[in-house]
Amino acid sequence: MQNPLPVLMVPTVGPGAERRRSRYDPRKKMTKPISVLLINESDADADAITRELSASGMEVSRRAATNPDELVAALDETNPEVVIGDHHPERFSACAIMDVLRYESPETPLIVVSETVTGLAAVSCLRAGTEDIVIRKNLKRLPEAIIRALEKRSGLTKLTGRQIEVLRLVAEGHRTREIAERLNLSVKTVESHRGEVMKRLEMHDVVSLVRYALRVGLIPATA
What we know:
Elements: E1 35-39, H1 43-55, E2 59-63, H2 68-78, E3 82-85, H3 94-104, E4 110-114, H4 119-128, E5 132-135, H5 142-152, H6 161-171, H7 176-183, H8 187-201, H9 206-215
Parallel strand pairs: 1-2, 1-3, 3-4, 4-5
Helix pairs in contact: 2-3, 3-4, 6-8, 6-9, 7-8
């Protein structure tokens, strides 16, 4: 008789995630400015980005965030709908930023604004779940990139934090019973959550859920 597989603990939606539910709804006219969190940009670049977004009616907050704890604190303080940052592989990279957003604020897209991005770095950013990459000399396309990113992730705003957890675990390939054990839920409850996710996202099979989770960065793409 084989020994039972150990139950591994997996990250869950962060404690501030429900409090930071996105306010963006593409079906409604924008009544409040889109809130943008700008991190780890130089003063000159931050000023240029802020001018461009402010001219489009967006509200920009700037914070230093060089590690996961600082980013979580910035998310709690500003409750942004979009995060913008540079890609610094040797420091707090886009991949590391996405590792935080994936659990702390999964509806919030990351857009990288950089002077230049090599092909390999671009692939790394996009595989990690970065929504878009904008070169600084082409900042005029940034507002449009933000709108597209929010529309792309608007489906996640229809889900509860628990439903997002279930969606992530389903997309990672875990069976219903494994998900139930990891989240300390009954199998029936997990099945109910999965069914509600499919209903709210208007999807009808697990393959569609996996594709969606990859598309919105809920799980990273493998090489």
